[in-house]
Amino acid sequence: MQLSAAAVSAMLTGVILCSLRAAAVQELRHPPNRIAIVGAGIGGTSTAYFLREKFGKHVQIDIFEKENVGGRLSTIEMEGYHYESGGSVIHPLNLHMKTFVKDLGLNVRTLDDSLVGIYNGEEFVFEESDWYLINVFKMIWNYGLNFLRMYMWVEDMLDKFMRIYRYQTFDYSFSSTESLLHAMGGDDFMTKINVTIDEAMQKSGFSQKFIDDIVVPAMRVNYGQGAKVNGFVGAVSLAGTSSGLWAVEGGNKLVCSGLLYASKANLIQGIVTSIQEKVRPTKSGDTVRLYEVNYETDKGPALDMYDIVVIAVPLCKEIGNIKFLGFNPPIESVSKPYHQMVATFVHGQINASFFGCPKPCQFSISEILTTNKPGLFFDSIGPVSPVKPVPASEISKASDIKVWKVFSPEPLTDEQLRLLFHSYHAVIVRKWLAYPEYTPPEKLPPIILHPGMYYLNSIESAASAMEMSAISAKNIALLAYHKWFGKDEQIDQEDLVERLKSEL
Ligand SMILES: Cc1cc2nc3c(=O)[nH]c(=O)nc-3n(C[C@H](O)[C@H](O)[C@H](O)COP(=O)(O)OP(=O)(O)OC[C@H]3O[C@@H](n4cnc5c(N)ncnc54)[C@H](O)[C@@H]3O)c2cc1C
Ligand SMILES: *[C@@H]1O[C@H](CO)[C@@H](O)[C@H](O)[C@H]1NC(C)=O
Ligand SMILES: *[C@@H]1O[C@H](CO)[C@@H](O)[C@H](O)[C@H]1NC(C)=O
Q1: Over 70: is that where the pLDDT of 61 sits?
Q2: Is 255 in contact with 469 (CB distance < 8 Å)?
Q3: Which residue intervals of 41-94 are DSSP H helices?
Q4: Phi and psi of 131, rounded to 5°?
Q5: Which of 313, 317, 459 to mutate to test the pocket of ligand 1 (most atoms within 8 A of CB)?
Q6: Residue 479 CA to chain centroid, in angstroms?
Q7: Pocket lining: 352 vs ligand 3, CB cutoff 6 Å
Q8: Is the pTM for the entire model greater than 0.90?
């Protein structure tokens, strides 16, 4: 196509006018003075990092944390070694997590693939072998092409998922979790949110035997729930069965403390109890909207005023329990209940005969997943490695005496421990309200709770994972910035896939 000189100059003028107008808006509006973030997990700390990137060095960012920086990224110590007790595994295509680790100068710990066995309460319905060809043969013999098809199904979803990074690179943001998901995967993602993983995979032609034997165990180990979780979190969970998984050397929580430090945010160790909107007159006779954040530290109650507030804690009664005072319409606990997951660390020898292995027993399986068998008291058992590499001289010679992590919905009784383990000499229990109780069709809580108040954990109702919190953090930093400076053209744009094709 030939453009006339006149057309080119008209276009250029347009471009210049547009940028002048944007500059004018920016000049009219001062940047915010103070921003509050509630919660210093990966969500809150990455929000601080991205907000600093967008708003520059002058804005004061305060981040409130009632317990430990890292939140659900946490380690336990057992006999001098540290192990991940919360969020532990990161997918190779989790690009925000990858970038954080690189930018913060942290190291990656690659996780070995272990041999998986799927136990149905009586025997193993599926056992991986050391031999690749045997595995392929077993998969095809038992499940036809279901494994291959699952690989392609997850691949297709990942392709769509990866679009979010391009949108965010080009500064696009979304005002609701629905519109964010829709921009990534269109109606396909929205349908997945509305149906169970069971229904979604049946509709795509997977066999019920494959779903029960292979898919459900993956849901149980990752989300402590079975085939009733929504199709989106289900697909995220299946992506977590791929190879190349990794963690952060020294503990995933180091990303949170690193981001906190790099963002130069102030950490306020205290619990936020309530937030209230305040309208104040300004010198020029206008009014300005502020949020009063009330909190308690060991020195007693205190309050501070903020222009923008980001809530990066689940807003259900058991966890966030923040009161929103004087808002109209009222803001209430917007999140559904969270699912309890108990992680029990056991240093001991697994009881192979419990798993139907006759004595003397060749027990090569290490990662044990389970089907949805009523009465089965645990979801999974697997060996774990310390978050820091162990010097060769210290590695235990007896390879069957390892540290195991058992996931179960309720704390294990002594009797249950004695069933699972032949012998053990150390046990540590960590109880979590781990992730939402998924019940599709999911009602996704709002991201914008009020014009200057944002809710990071809305995204968890679609799927809970470290990377999901980081994606939500970047989205909220962009959204808060565009809203503050009136850049509506960067919010909720349709057809970004097409539009960004022509961009470099
Ligand atoms: C057992 C388990 C296993 C998991 N496995 C994986 C995995 O393998 N891979 C993966 O990607 N994800 C995994 N996840 C999920 C992942 O850990 C979470 O999605 C992610 O860490 C959530 O981060 P967040 O910052 O959004 O929330 P959180 O980490 O929960 O942060 C919220 C913070 O807010 C604080 N807080 C709460 N209320 C207040 C208040 N009123 N005032 C001040 N502070 C407050 C809390 O103390 C907490 O530190 C797992 C989670 C659990 C529990
Ligand atoms: C999902 O369900 C909601 C109601 O819960 C409905 O409004 C929406 O249209 C559904 N979306 C799709 C793509 O099925
Ligand atoms: C091991 O498992 C078997 C079979 O379930 C059980 O009878 C036994 O009590 C368990 N514990 C030990 C220590 O062997």
Answers
A1: yes
A2: no
A3: 42-55
A4: -100, 120
A5: 313
A6: 19
A7: no
A8: yes
